[in-house]
Amino acid sequence: MKTSLFLFLFLATSLHSVSAEPVLRDWTNQEGRTIAAALVALEGDMATLRMENGRTYEVSLATLSEADREFAADWQRKQEAEAKAEARGLELGEPTEAIVESAFSEDAPPTRKGDIAGWKAGIGEWRIEEGSLVGDELEEDHHPSSLTYRLEATDLIIMAEVRLGTAEQIAFACRDTVPPNLHLGRLFITPDKLWIQHMTGIAKTTKAERVATRDVELDPDEWYPVTIEIIGDHYRARVGDEEIEATHSRFADAKGIVALVNKGQGARFRNVSLWHAKAKE
User: Fold this and answer.
1) For site-directed labelling of 170, which of 25, 121, 225, 279 has its Cα 20 to 30 A away?
2) Residue 88 confidence class, pLDDT cut points 50, 70, 90
3) Do the Cβ atoms of 267 and 153 come closer than 8 Å?
4) CA 138, 173, 103, 194: dihedral to nearest 10 degrees?
5) Do 212 and 236 form a contact (C-beta atoms < 8 A)?
6) Could you give the CA distance from residue 236 to residue 244 in angstroms, rounded to a whole number?
7) For residue range 113-157, what is the model confidence (pLDDT) as tens digits?
8) Out of 27-31, 129-133, 195-199, which region has the weakest mean confidence (pLDDT)?
9) How many CB atoms are closer than 10 A to CB 166?
10) What radius of gyration, in Å, describes the C-alpha atoms of the chain?
11) Are 54 and 115 contained in the same domain?
């Protein structure tokens, strides 16, 4: 017979105290018994729970309900996102909920129209190989390659890793929520320049205006972390150690589509994640 959660808690050795203020919730074991505690650490299958009296104990996730295990998994993803965000020097916003996290680590054959790892290939040819996503522009399209993800977000954080390779330029694009999803703004990345562009319209009606430009020196054969914060009317991007930011009223509009865009061939993307966000206090 499995040891009950309560018995385990009373017999377990007390662990170190945790400085962060705990958020209490009900935890239920597989025998249906419930306690109030906060999750403060998770390592493998072992969760550290903090009781209201401040004492902490280790509990195996295998002894808890499915809902508790799902909560623990979500909690861990948020902790990892916050750690990654801190490492990337977010200044405007904080990630609150993952929209999609795409490692692009599992091979996928060349795709011109259709699904690729949950994203939609619309223009150009896309594939996943050697642990990253490759998007090649095709001459007959007369347009850079584009891979899109549909969402509904207002404040947004985008994280990714990119390598330019032989591509002329790559971009992270946003479109709004109003059909036919008009352009909103883009970050462009080239070996020698970054720029943020305010945009309106779509297809042949598109109008664009550069609102910020920065000269850089990026190695096309090197991977760079990219972080984009679109919080209210403020757009801030970091590529490696380079930063650029701009403001425009259009950036505050709701986002309905995010696109990965490549002009040329050979650009690679990996570990792309989109996050709902809130402004830092």
Assistant:
1) 279
2) confident
3) no
4) 90
5) no
6) 6
7) 999 999 999 999 999 999 999 999 999 999 999 999 999 999 999
8) 27-31
9) 11
10) 22
11) no
Please give the helix or strand (H or E) that residue 47 lies within, else none. strand 46-50
Tokens of 150: 């549909």
pLDDT tens profile 226-260: 999 999 999 999 999 999 999 999 999 999 999 99
Give the CATH number, domain containing residue 11. Answer: 2.30.30.700
* Tokens (6 digits) for 53: 């009296």
Q: Which of 66, 86, 106 is the last residue of a domain?
A: 86
Does residue 7 register a pLDDT over 90? no
Q: Which residues pair with 174 in a beta bridge?
A: 185, 258
Cβ atoms of residues 128 and 106 within 8 Å: yes
| Distance between CA atoms of residues 124 and 134, nearest Å | 10
Domain that holds residue 167: 95-279
The pLDDT value recorded for residue 14 is 33
Q: Which of 52, 86, 120 is the last residue of a domain?
A: 86
